[in-house]
Q: What sequence folds into this?
């Protein structure tokens, strides 16, 4: 779905599971993860930006008929064919850049996309139009509305947003750790707008990109979020480390962690604790300012 949803602090939307629309957020933030955006060996922001821009420019010259669109698909599938981190996760060549400034990922076949004159061509894609219109990732159903709204408020760039919003287990672990320390839920309004609390929350989310303790089987920043059990994340063997199970095990596990020693485990726990403390201090300071 491509229409930009209302803002992140709006009432629940009855049209989507979980009440909070996640696919298209604003002019610079959208998620293309279910279209295979991050299922590439070269998946840095710059590399994906170039890939999306190239597809968009090439599709602009394609005649809007079934034969020409299918030829475009076949050409790009051959050209972009490479070893994928997840070989059974299809990468759709019709994901490009949309919007007035072509500043966010979106479906080039959508009726509102440039050049389509209101005609819906999504039925010509690999999964067909029904799947493209009606598929919702697990985050829609598994995350509370407030947590989804926080992610939308904090992530201001499509690259990090798409990587984070599909990580329902990681997000659940992060929010559980925050709220356990505070003794109450985190409200979207506490991190909305610019300020230290939003920045500290963004740092926590950015662990998805910068985590230094990934295991040897790490497949890149993308997440295989389908509930088919094909790519489970290996548990951490605390016995091998001669250490008790970590209080941060859900976060460590969701980040795909692997540790060569107990010292590494302790360092990883300390990193998470430091970032949580920074966020809690920022939230407390913001609350004090608001009270006055």
A:
């Amino acid at each position: 779905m491509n229409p930009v949803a209302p803002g992140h602090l709006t009432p629940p939307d009855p049209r989507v599971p979980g009440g909070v629309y996640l696919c298209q957020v604003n002019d610079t933030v959208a998620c293309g993860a279910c279209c295979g955006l991050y299922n590439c060996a070269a998946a840095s922001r710059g590399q994906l930006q170039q890939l999306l821009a190239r597809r968009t420019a090439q599709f602009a010259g394609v005649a809007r008929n079934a034969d020409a669109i299918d030829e475009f698909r076949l050409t790009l599938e051959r050209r972009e064919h490479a070893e994928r981190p997840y070989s059974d996760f299809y990468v759709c060549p019709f994901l490009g850049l949309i919007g007035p400034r072509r500043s966010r990922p979106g479906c080039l076949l959508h009726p509102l996309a440039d050049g389509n004159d209101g005609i819906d061509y999504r039925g010509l894609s690999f999964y067909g139009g029904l799947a493209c219109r009606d598929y919702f990732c697990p985050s829609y159903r598994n995350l509370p509305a407030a947590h989804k709204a926080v992610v939308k408020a904090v992530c201001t760039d499509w690259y990090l947003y798409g990587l984070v919003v599909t990580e329902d287990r990681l997000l659940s672990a992060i929010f559980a750790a925050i709220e356990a320390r505070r003794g109450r839920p985190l409200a979207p309004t506490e991190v909305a707008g610019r300020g230290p609390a939003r920045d500290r929350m963004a740092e926590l989310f950015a662990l998805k990109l910068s985590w230094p303790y990934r295991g040897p089987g790490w497949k890149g920043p993308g997440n295989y979020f389908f509930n088919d059990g094909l790519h489970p994340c290996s548990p951490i063997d605390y016995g091998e480390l001669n250490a008790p199970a970590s209080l941060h095990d859900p976060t460590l596990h969701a980040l795909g962690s692997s540790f060569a020693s107990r010292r590494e485990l302790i360092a990883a726990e300390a990193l998470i604790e430091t970032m949580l403390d920074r966020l809690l201090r920022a939230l407390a300071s913001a609350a004090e300012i608001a009270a006055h």
Observations:
- The first helix runs from residue 45 to 59.
